[in-house]
Amino acid sequence: MSKSQIQYLSGCSLKLISAFTDFGREDENYEICHDFILSNLRFHRYLDTNSHDMKRKAQGLIDKFLIHAQHPKAGKMAKCLKSLESLTDFSALRFIMLLANRPTEYEYVEDFERVEEEPIDDFDWTEYLNRGLEVYNIDSTFSSEDELEEDDKRDDNEAENQTQNTTTNNNTLEGTTDTEEEDKTLVSLVEEIEYHDGLEKRVVDKYWRSGGKFENIKSSMPSANLYNNWFAYSTGLSKHKASTSFLNDYILIRESIWLFCGSPAKHIFDFINYTPRVNSLSEHSLIGLLKVIVEHAKKLKEMFDYTDSLSQKVFCQTEEAFISYFASLLNEIRKKFLDIEKTLIVWLKENEEPKCPLTLLKFVNMIEPEMKSITLYYEIFYSLKQNMDIDFQLRSLFILSELYNTVTSRNLIGSSSINIQIYKLFLNTLRPYLDIIYYWIWYGELRDCKNEFLIQRSKIDKTEELWHSSYTLNRKKFLFFQPILKQLLQAAKSVDVLQQMNKLQVSYEDDNLFDIFSENMLQIDIDGWTNMDKILKNGLYSHVIKQCDFVCKCLLDVLLTDYQLTNTFKTLQQFYLLEDGETMRNFYLPIFEMIRDNQDWKDVTLLTTSFQDSINNHELQSFSSRFHVTVEESDEGSFDMMKLNFDVRWPENIVVHSASLTLYNRIFAFLLQIKRMKYALDNLRFSNMNYNLTQEAKHRMCILRMKFLHFINNLHVYIMRRILQTSGLQFSEHLRLAKNVEDLISAHNRYIKQIYSRCLLSDKLSFIRQAIFKIFNAVSSLEKMWTEIVNINEITALEVQLSKTVSFLASFLMKVIRKGFYPHLEFLAFSLQPTKSARHNQSH
C-alpha cells in the first residue's frame, strides 16, 4: 500500500472516530481506535464465502417459503439458486440474505427483465439479392382441371423456350468479361428448374389428372395412413372449394367424440379458415357449441396427458391413491363417450337412411353432466398440479386439504352422481392415511415408507427424551385431522412405549379403519353427505379416539401398577420434601450437629451411607440403593451444594425427568435450611450463655431468640403444612383423574412447579427469598454470640435488622394479597404482623 493511500485511510479513520466517539486527540483511547482501524483496513483478510453453506441456507429459506404457502417466492428462489455458479454469485447472495429482514412478511413483486427490441432492418434484401436475376414465379391457384392442364402445358413450353433462350444468350455473351458472373447464375438456375421438371414428370402423379380417385394404399407410412383416414372419413364431407362447408350432425358428433377421446384426427376443428355449417343450427350457435366442446375436450386431454406422464415418477402413498382413482374417473368419462359412438354406429347399421338420430345440440345437452364433471375435476387437478414439487409430507397434507375443502367449503355442482364421485375420490385418497393410523394405533406397525404422515418419529430408545423429543408434528394448518391430532400424537407415543416394554395388547378387528368409515358413509343418505364434519365425527373420529384412549389407558395402568410409579412419587415426597419427618431427621440431625461443632460434614461417602441407613427400616427401603449424595461448590447457601440424587429408571423418567429432579433438590436444600435454623434456635439454652454478660444483655438476647423463633416457626408451618400438605392432596386427586400419560406428566410438572413457586424459590419472588436469607444469617450470628461476650450494640444491630426485615415482609405481602396476587401467602403475611404491644415497644 502506497504512502498516499495510507495517509488517505488515516484521514478517513480520524473522521470515523470523531463521528462515533467523543474522544479527543489527546486521549489514549483515540490513538488505540486509530491504530485498530488502520490495522484492520491494511492487514485483515476476510474468508471466502462457503458455497455449500449458502446453498443450505438458501434451501432453508425455500423450505420456509413453502411452509408459509409462499410458493412464488420459493420457485423464484429455487430458480435463482440453480443459476448461481461463481464464488462472486454466492457472495452476492450472502450479502442480500444478510440485508433481508423477515422475508416471509413482505409481498413479493417480480421485476420482469426488460427485453430491448432489436432495431428493424428496413433494407430490401429481396431486391438486392434478385438484382440482375429473372424471377421465376409459379402460380399455385387453379380454378378447374382444364385450366390446370393448360397451365401445365404452358409451363413445359415456357421451360423449353427459356432453355433455348438461355443457351442462345450464353453463346452470344461468350467471351464477355463484364457479365460472366450473371451467366453462371442463370445457367445454374435453369439446370435446377429442368431437373425438378423432369423429376415431377417421371415421379409425381398429379391428383387432378386422376380425377380424384385413388387406390387404397396399404402402407405403414404416416402419409399413407393420413390418406386412408381421410378417405374413410370424407364420405360425408364436401370438397373444400368454397369458404363454407356443409356438414351433417353425425360427422360433427363423431368428430366431437373423437376429440374427447384424445384422438389426433381432428379434421373439422383444424379447418379454421372454413366455416362449418349444418342445416339445424345457425353459424353463431354452431361455433358456440363447438367452442364449448373444444374447451372441455382440451381440459380432459390435459388431465389425461398429465396422469400418463407420471408413470415413471416416484409417488407418496396418498398421491398414488389420488392419481389412481382420479384416472379411473377420467376413464369413466371417456367410456361414456365411446358408448355414445357405439350406439350411433349400431343405429346407422340398422337403418338405411343416413340421417343421424341426434343433433349436435341434443348431443351437447346429453353430455352436459360429463362436461360439468370435467370442469370440477379440472379445478381440483389444476390446484394440485401447482404444488407437486414439495416434499412427500407437505404434498400429502396439501392433497387431502384441497379435497377436504372441496367437499366441505363449497356446494358441489352437477347431479348427485357427480357429488358421489367427488366424495369417493376424497375417501380413496384418504385411504393410505387411514391405513397408517390403523396399523400404527391398533397393531403398533408404522407403515409409512415415504415419511408422509403428519407425525414423524425419531430413533430415540428408552430415554426420557423418547416421549418429549422423539416425535415431530407438522404444524401446517390441517383442518381434517385437527380434532383428533392431540389424541393421535399421545396414542402414537403410548404404542411405541408399550412396544418397548413388550406390553402392547393388540386388538384384532375384522374391518380396518377405511372399511368402517366407508360403511358408515354408505349407510347415510346421499343428501346427508354434504355435512362432512358430522360424518367424520360419527364415522371416523369416534373410532380413532376410542382406540387412542384404550392404548393410552393401557400405558397408564402399566406404569402405575407394573412399574409402581405411585411408589416413586411417594418416595420423592417423603425424602425430598421431608414428609417422612422421623426418617429424614435421622439423616439431617447428625449434619446439623457437625455444623454446630464446626466439623466437616461434606464427606460424600459418609452422607450417602447415612442416608441409606436412615431409610433401611422404611417401607420404601427397596429404593435406598437408588439414592446417593453428592456435594458441589455453590455460592447460594451451605445446603445448596449438597445434591440428593435419585436414579430414575426407564420408563419412570418419562414422567420424572431430570428437570423435575433439579427442582426437587432446590426445594430439599431450602427445607434443610429452615430445619437448620429451627434446630439452632431450639438448642440455644439459657444455661449455655456466657456468665460474664450483663442481665440486660441476657434478657435482650433471650427476647431476640424468641422473635427469631417466632418467625422461623411461622415460616416452617407455612411451608410444611400450608404448601406441601395441600399441594400433595391436590396432586393425589390429579393422579386419580388422569386418563393418559400426558395427564400424568402435566399433573406432576404442575405439582412440582407449584411447590417451587410457593416455597418462594421462583425468580419473581427472589427479593423475598433474599430477605428471608438475611434473617437466616442473623440467626447464625445469634448462635455464635450466645456463648461469647458481646457488646450491647451488636445485639441492637440484630434487633434492628430483624425488625426492619419482618416489617418489610409483612407490609409487602399484605399489599400483594390486597391486589389479589399470591393468595397462598396470606397465612404467612398475617403471621408476621406484630402485636399491639410489640408495636408499642418498637415506637419507644
TrEMBL record:
GO cellular component: gamma-tubulin complex; microtubule; spindle pole
Annotated Gamma tubulin complex component protein N-terminal domain residues: 253-561
Keywords: Cytoplasm, Cytoskeleton, Microtubule
Low complexity composition-biased segments: 160-176
Region of interest (Disordered), residue spans: 143-182
Ranges where the Gamma tubulin complex component C-terminal domain occurs: 565-807
Segments of skewed composition (Acidic residues): 144-159
Protein name: Gamma-tubulin complex component
Origin superkingdom: Eukaryota
